[in-house]
Design a protein that fits this description.
- This protein has 372 residues and is an alpha+beta fold.
- 26% of the residues lie in helices and 33% in strands.
- The protein starts with a helix and ends in a 9-residue tail after the last strand.
- 42% of the residues are buried.
- Bound molecules: adenosine-5'-triphosphate (ATP).
- Residues 34, 37, 39, 57, 59-65, 213 line the site of adenosine-5'-triphosphate.
- Adenosine-5'-triphosphate binds at residues 34, 37, 39, 57, 59-65, 213.
Length: 372
């Protein structure tokens, strides 16, 4: 575990003050086969009590399957899951002390907000006075205290998702599992709910596993992010570390909006060269197939004599606070962030300089990071 990941998990553990039910969740060598198809491959992650872990990856990478195995909704082919000191691998979902929140809110349409939130406690035969107080507490936690008498149809999408969250909170579970809970909301509400969810999770200190394909959600919400591709865990670390120090080409290209730029070339005698330029990369051995990776914000447009690479402007877009310049460099499309007042025409030649401290180099074949 990196130093920043250790700090993040320590912080998560220390935030478990308001609820001391939070537990460590351990996945050990989890595998899932659907017939011949190997959907989750040897997945091992230890999630600290109170930690917010995001499982991130493109569609079909196995993240929902992993979450469903934790919930007990999917049989595990091989491997084990422990919650606290208990091996829950074969325990029925309802006995796992876990609450799930899905993309679809799954509310009962004919029950009020209060009845929906209180339903898990009613099933557990909690005495009425205690149930009413718990419902009120959970509703207040997600700012629904004024809407307890309404029906789901009388609520906005964001409010419905908050009811689903309150229904999860009310049980005081050892662990929250969330599968793309914000993806039905429009962009503005999603941003707002993201902040609310983060605040609430940190306040409650409940161990949380959150599935998304949205790297912004992962960056903003997680203590640590687990990035998956084709059933295999690619990197597990803090959002900052994953962004600044990607383990491979896949992770580098997945994190960031716009994503990292790549230009293919070779390293010879401590210099990266390609048809459109060159840059010193001291400390790396000679290599014939290299992806030179640099982030749009770590790159500046400069004069020809200072440049590492030269290309042709494909488009230039002023977004308000900055200008996004997209250019073609050989077969690559490269994006550079420039000042909001920067102006350049299509098809003009543009020269760029990357911050060499932040450049990442990858093997063009395997995609693995090259270390200097
Ligand atoms: P998405 O974001 O699209 O939900 P995901 O990363 O959550 O994707 P999973 O739902 O975990 O992906 O699916 C992983 C792989 O397993 C996919 O290729 C999917 O087609 C396959 N899969 C999932 N459920 C089944 C099933 N019941 N039978 C056969 N294959 C399945």
């Amino acid at each position: 575990m990196s130093a920043s990941a250790q700090t993040a998990t320590r912080e998560a553990t220390s935030q478990t003050k308001s609820l001391n039910t939070a537990k460590r969740l351990s996945m050990r060598n989890l595998n899932k086969y659907y017939g011949e198809f190997h959907a989750v491959i040897d997945l091992s992650i230890d999630i600290e009590p109170g930690e917010f872990l995001v499982l991130l990856g493109p569609s079909g990478c196995g993240k929902s399957t992993a979450l469903r195995m934790i919930a007990g909704l999917e049989d595990i082919s091989t491997g084990t899951i422990e919650l606290g000191e208990t091996d829950v691998t074969t325990v029925l979902p309802k006995y796992r002390d876990i609450a799930m929140v899905f993309q679809s809110y799954a509310l009962y349409p004919h029950k009020t907000v209060a009845e929906n939130i209180g339903f898990p406690l009613k099933v557990a035969k909690v005495p009425k006075a205690e149930l009413d107080q718990a419902v009120l507490d959970a509703a207040n936690q997600v700012q629904l205290g004024e809407l307890l008498g309404r029906y789901p149809r009388q609520l906005s999408g964001g409010q419905r998702q908050r009811v689903a969250l309150a229904r999860a909170i009310v049980r005081r579970p050892a662990c929250f599992l969330m599968d793309e809970p914000l993806s039905n909301l429009d962009a503005k509400l999603r941003g707002f709910m993201r902040a609310e969810l983060k605040h609430m999770q940190r306040e409650l200190g409940v161990t949380t596993v959150y599935v998304t394909h949205d790297q912004i959600e992962a960056m903003t919400l997680a203590h640590r992010v687990a990035i998956m591709k084709e059933g295999v865990l690619q990197q597990l670390d803090t959002p900052k570390e994953v962004y600044n120090n990607p383990a491979n080409l896949f992770v580098a290209g997945f994190m960031g909006s716009p994503p990292m730029n790549f230009v293919n070339g070779r390293i010879e005698g401590g210099t990266f060269t390609c048809h459109q330029g060159r840059a010193p990369v001291a400390g790396y051995g000679d290599h014939v197939n290299v992806e030179f990776g640099f982030r749009p914000e770590d790159t500046v447009i400069c004069s020809e004599d200072e440049a590492h690479l030269s290309g042709v402007v494909y488009s230039s877009e002023m977004t308000g606070n900055e200008t996004i310049v997209t250019c073609t460099i050989g077969h690559s499309t490269v994006v550079v962030k420039a000042d909001k007042d920067y102006e350049i025409d299509m098809n003009e030649v543009v020269h760029i300089k990357a911050d060499l401290e932040k450049v990442c180099l990858f093997d063009g074949g395997s995609g693995e990071r090259l270390r200097g």
